[in-house]
Design a protein that fits this description.
- The structure is a homopentamer.
- The first copy, chain A, has helices spanning about 1-20, 35-50, 55, 60-65, 75-90, 95-100, 105-115, 120-170, 180-230, 235-240, 245-250.
- The longest helix of chain A has about 50 residues, at about 180-230.
- Chain A is mainly alpha-helical.
- In chain A, helix 2 runs parallel beside helix 9.
- Chains in contact: A-B, A-E, B-C, C-D, D-E.
- At the A-B interface, helix 2, helix 3 and helix 8 of A face helix 1, helix 9 and helix 10 of B.
C-alpha cells in the first residue's frame, strides 16, 4: 500500500507538470502566491471553524497511517486462533496464558486476556464490540475531516475566481490585461480542484479502506475469542472464521476435506 | 475549541481581504448594499418560511455553544464512575447519596439519583436512552438549520446574479457599463459562497462534532450507571468504560495489569 | 409559526423587487408569460407524470397545514397524562372514562379509549405504533412532492434557457437583439430558482419539522398511555415523559426534587 | 392515475412547442438527427452496459404499469378482511374456503389459502414477508433503471455539446457559422434535459409511489391474515387495520363508536 | 448479459464517432495525447492514492465478471432443493451425501455438507450468513472503485480544461489560436465524461446487479438448507422458496394447486 500511495501522489503531479510543459506552458504561469493563500489558507480557516484544534492536530497522524498502514493479516490470525483452539482443547483455556505474551496485536491480546481471566462471555462481547464500534465511528469522523476539506477546497477556489472576476470586470478598460487577469482568477479553481481530487478525496478513500480491513480483522477476533471460550471444535471454528474471507484467500487455509 | 473557532473565522476574512488588496483591488469593489440585502436577506426569508420563529430564535444559542462548547471530560467521568463503584461495593449504593450533590453534570446526576432511588434498571435505561435519543435528534434538527441556510445562501447568490444579468443584457447598448454591471451581478454569488463555505457549513460541522462528543459522554454515563446498580466489579467496570475511548486516552486510566 | 411563514414569503418577494428597482431595473423586465408557462407549467406537467392527481389534489391542504400548523403542546400533554395517572391510581382506570370526552386530540383520545376498554397492552402498542409509522411515511411522501417540484423547477428553468439560447444562436445576425433575447432566455432559470429556493424547498422543510413535532407528541402519548395502563407511579411517569423534552422546557414541569 | 400521467406527458411537450412558437422559433430549429442519436442512442448504449438485456426488455412493462396501475383498494380490503373475521368467528376458519375463490388479488388469495391449510402462523408470516421484501427490492431495482437513464441522458447531452464545441472551435474562422454550430451543440443538452426531467425522472417517481401503495396493501393483508388465524375479535381487527390508513379514509370504515 | 455489455460498449463508441463524422468533423480533432495522459493518467494516479495496488490489481477480474457473469439459476436451484427435500424425507438426510458431489455451486455444496455433517442449525446459519454478508461488502467495495474512478475522471477532465484555459488566457494575443487552444482544453472534459458515463458508471451498475442476483441466490440456499435440515414438508419448502421469485418465474415451478 505504501508504494502505490506515494507513487500515485508523485506521478499525479508529474503528469500535470508534463501536461503544462508539453502544451508550451511554463510552471510559472501556474504559480501565484495570493491564489495559494486564498485557496489553501481560506479552506484551512474554514476547517479550523469546523473542528477543534485538538482534532486537526491529529491530521498528520492520519496521513502517516495512510502511508504506513497497520499490517493486519487475517489468514495468519485465523491460523493463530485455530492453533489456540487446538491447544486449549487439550490443555485447557488457562494453557493459553503463556501464548498471550507472544501476541502483539493489542485487540487480540485483550480478548485472549479476558478469556483467560474467565470473564463472562456476554461481557467480553460487549467490551470488544463497544471497542470496534467506537473505533469505527472515530475513524469515520477523522476521515470526514479530509472529506470536508476536499469539499471546501474547490469552494474556496471558486470564491477566489469570483474575486478575480469582480476585480477584472471593474477594470475592463485595460483590454490587454483581461487575459492575464482571468488566468490568475482561474488558478484558484485549479488549485482547489487539484488539492481536492488528487490529494484529499483519495486520502479519505484510503483511510476508509484501512478502517474496513481493521473492522474485518477485529470481527474475526471477536468471533474467534468467543468460540475459544465456548470450547468450539477447532475444525468448526476454522469453518466459521474462514467465512469472513474472500474465496481465493481460503485456499491456503483449507485442506481438501474442508472445501 | 474556542480559540480555533474565532481564529479560523477572523483569519479567513483577513485572507480574503489580503487577496483583494494584493491584487490591487479595493474593499469598496466588494461592497454593494442591495447585493447584501438580496443574498443575506433573501436567504434569511427562505429560512423564515422553513422554520418557525421560535426555533430560529435559538440560533444565537447554537452559535454560543460553538464558541463555548460544554467541557465533557470522558476520562474524568470514568475515574468518577469507577470511584463510585468502589465506594458502593464497600458501603452500599445508598452511600452514593452524598456524592450526588458534588456531581455537576445534570445527566450523570439524574442517572445516579435514579440508582439511589432504586428505580428498576430497565426503567433507568429507558429514561436515559430516551433522553440521549431526543437530545441527538434535537441537535441534528438545529444543526440542519445552519446546513439549510448554507444551501440557500449560494442559491440566493445565484438568483441575485441572474437578476443582474437580465438587467445588464436588456441595457447592453451602454458598452462601458457592462463590466461594472457584471461585477455587481457576480458579487451576490460571492457573498453567498463566503457565507456558506466560511461561516455556515463549518459552523454546522462544528455543532455536529460537539453533539458526537456529548452522545459519547452520555453513553458512558448510561453504561456506568447501570453497571453501578448491578454491582459490577470496579475493575470490570473500568474495562467496559475504557472501551469507549481511543487507545491513546486509555493510557492515563489503565495501570500495567489492565493493558 | 403562521406569522413567520407568511412574513418570510412576502418579505422575500419584496426584497427581490427592491433589488430590481434599486439597480434601476423595472419589474416589466422580469415578466415574460411564455417563460412563466415553460417553467411553472412544464414542471407542473412533470409533477402530473410523477404523481396521481388524487395525491396532487392534496397539495393545497399541505400548504394550509404549513400556514396553520396543528398546535401540539407537549408540556400540556405531559401535565394531562400525569394528572390522569394520579386519578387512575386513586379511582381506578375506569374513572378515566369521563375525562376522555374532554380530550380533543384524536390520537390521545384513541389511546385512552383503548386503555379504558382494557385492550391488551401489546395490541395497544401495535395499533398506536402502526398509526405513527404510517402517518410518518404518508407525511414524508407528501413532503417529497414539494421536494420533487423544487428539483424540477430549476430543471425546467434550464430547459427554457437552453431553448432561448438555441433560438438566439440561430438568429445571431441581428446583433441588437442578442442582449434582450439572452435576457429572456435567462428569465426561465430565474423563475425556476425563485420558485424552488424561496417557496418549495422552504415549504418542504417546514412540513418536515411539523411532522417531527407530531411524531414526538404521539410518541409521548404511546409511552404515557402504556404507563397509565401498567399502573406506573405518576412521579416515575413524569420522569419518563420529561426525558422527551429539551431541558429548558422541563423547568415548568419539574419541582425542585425532580431536577 | 392513468389520465394525469398521459395528460402531464402530452401537455408538457405541447408547452415546450408553444414556448418555441411564441418566441418566433420553429420546430425545425430543434430537430437534429445526429443529436438525437448521440443523446438517446448513447445513453441507451450506456444502459445496455449497465443492465442485462433480459432486464431492459421489461422496461415497456413498467411503462404500462405506470399507465395502468393495479387498483388496490385498501378500504375494500379491510371490509373484506373484517367480514371474513366475522364469518370465521361464527363458522370456523374452514368456512372461508368457499370465499377464497371469489378473491381475485393473488397475494390475499395465497395468504387465505395458507390459513385454511392451517399452516403454522410463523411460517405464513415468513412466506408472506419474504414475498413483500423481494417484491419491494425487485421494484426498486426496476425503478432504478429509469433513474439511471435519467442520470445518463443529460450526461450524454453534455458529451454531445462538448463534441459540438470542439468542432466549432477548430473551425472558428467561419464567423457566420458559429451561431448555428453552437445552436446544434446545445441541442443535445436540451434533448437530454427534456428526456430526463419530463419523462424519465417523473416515471421513476411514479413507479415508486405505486410500489409504496402495493407495500401498504400487502402489509394490511399480512396483519389481517395473521389476525384471522389467531381468531382476533373482528372489532379489534378493524381497529388494527384502520391504523394503516390516513384519517380521512377511516371515516367510511368506522361507525361512531369506533372513532 | 455478455452480449448486451459488449454491444452497448462498442455501439456507444460507434455512435460518438458517427456524431463526429456526420457533423463534418474528423476523429483527429478528438485525439490529443497530453489530454489523454492528464485525464486517464491523472485519474488513475488518484485511484492509486485511494486504494492499495493489491486491490486495484483485481479490477480486470471484475471487468471479466461483468463480461461473463456467473450463471445462477434460481428456478433450477429451487427444483434441486425440493428434490433433495423429497429424497431426505424418504431416505433420511444422510442419503444426500451422494448428491453433494453432483452439486457444482460451491455455496450450495458447503451448505449441504454442513447438513450432512449434522452441524448445529444455528451454526450453519451463522457460517452461511457471514459468508453472504462478507461477500456483499467485498463486492460493494470493489464496485466502489469503479464508482470512485467515475467521479475522478470528469474532475481530472475539468483540471485539464482549467490548465488549458489558463495557458490560453496568458497567450491571448494570438487571436487565431484561441479557438484551437480552447478546443484542446475542452477535450479533457470530453474524455473524462465519456470514460465516466459510457464505461465506468455503467460497469459499476452492472457489477451491482450481479451482486444482487448472487445475494438472492445465496439467500435461497440458506433458507433451503435450513428447511432441509429441520425436515420441512417439501411442498411447504417450495412455497417458502418460491416467495423469493418474481411472479412470472413462479409459473414453471407451481402446479395448479400451488398457485
Amino acid at each position: 500500500m505504501y508504494v502505490g500511495f506515494i507513487v500515485g501522489l508523485v506521478l499525479g503531479f508529474i503528469l500535470l507538470v508534463y501536461g503544462i510543459l508539453v502544451a508550451g506552458g511554463s510552471l510559472l504561469m501556474f504559480w501565484d502566491l495570493p491564489s495559494v493563500i486564498i485557496t489553501f489558507g481560506g479552506s484551512w480557516c474554514a476547517l479550523m471553524v469546523s473542528y477543534p484544534l485538538s482534532i486537526l492536530a491529529k491530521m498528520p497522524t492520519y496521513f502517516r497511517i495512510a502511508l504506513f498502514p497497520p499490517r493486519l493479516n487475517a489468514v495468519d490470525l485465523i491460523i493463530t486462533l485455530v492453533s489456540f483452539a487446538e491447544k486449549s482443547r487439550k490443555e485447557g483455556l488457562l494453557a493459553l496464558e503463556d501464548d498471550i505474551d507472544s501476541v502483539e496485536e493489542p485487540f487480540l491480546k485483550k480478548g485472549l486476556q479476558c478469556v483467560v481471566d474467565s470473564i463472562d462471555p456476554e461481557l467480553i462481547r460487549v467490551i470488544l464490540e463497544i471497542e470496534i464500534d467506537e473505533m469505527a465511528s472515530r475513524h469515520d469522523a477523522n476521515k470526514k475531516i479530509f472529506d470536508d476539506w476536499a469539499g471546501l477546497a474547490p469552494s474556496f477556489g471558486m470564491i477566489g475566481t469570483l474575486m478575480g472576476l469582480v476585480m477584472m470586470l471593474v477594470n475592463l478598460n485595460d483590454k490587454a490585461m483581461v487575459g492575464p487577469y482571468l488566468a490568475v482568477a482561474i488558478i484558484t479553481t485549479f488549485y482547489g480542484a487539484v488539492l481536492a481530487y488528487l490529494v484529499l478525496t483519495p486520502l479519505a478513500t484510503n483511510l476508509d479502506s484501512i478502517t474496513g480491513e481493521e473492522i474485518l480483522y477485529k470481527s474475526i477476533v471477536v468471533m474467534g475469542v468467543l468460540s475459544l471460550q465456548s470450547g468450539d471444535n477447532p475444525r468448526i471454528l476454522k469453518q466459521k472464521l474462514v467465512s469472513f474471507l474472500p474465496p481465493p484467500m481460503r485456499v491456503s487455509l483449507l485442506d481438501e476435506k474442508d472445501v
